[in-house]
Every structure is written in structure tokens, then in C-alpha cells.
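Go through the following before class.
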Amino acid sequence: MVHKRQKPKISYWLEATRNAYGFGHDYWLFMSDGKKTKKFMLGQDVKVFSRALGMDMGYAIDHYSKKAKSKDFNKVSKFIATDILKTNAGRTQDDWDARLSQAELRNLFKAQAWEMSVQ
């Protein structure tokens, strides 16, 4: 009996660091296959929401706080990261609500570190 080697599951998360200007945060998206972790510099939070997700900061805070039922970044960050990945995967409104597949995540994992940047 031949066993197929199972492809590694891709995980992802979002981190924020205070930006150099003293206001706002810079967003970093991380993806890992369990062996290798890739770090994608997305850009300043306001620009990420505006350019990548098409929403202003006030709306984004309200939208993700309601989705996560919290204003805690650790709780909302997974929702933001998922939507950023859906955008980069080319999702449309018609297929937006479907979960990200491992095939989509593996494809995004191949991206260069700068390819998701909104700068």
C-alpha cells in the first residue's frame, strides 16, 4: 500500500507594530507551513484597510469588532488576516463567505515578501 504524503497545513496570523511616525500601526502577515515561516509587510493600518480592503479606518474598527465581538486586536486580527488573504486570492463578492482553502493558502504562501504590500 502506497501512502500519499500529506501536504503541510498552512497557518497564518497578523501582527501589528507601532509605526515610526508615532501614530497608527504597521501590519505584518505571517504564514507558516510548519517548517518555514514567511513574513509579509503589508503597510500602515489605515492604508491596509483603505487599499487592500476598501474601507476606512472607522468602518473597519466597527466591522471587525462586531465580527469578533471584541475590540481586542488579538481577537480581531484573525478576521482581518483572513480578509486580506481572500483579497489576495482574488475572491469576489460571490465567493467571499467561503472558507479559505488550503490550496489557496499554499498558492499565497508562494508569494514574495513584498507582494501583499499596500505601500
Summary: The mean pLDDT is 93. The chain has one domain: 11-91+98-109. Helices lie at 45-52, 57-68, 73-88, 102-109.
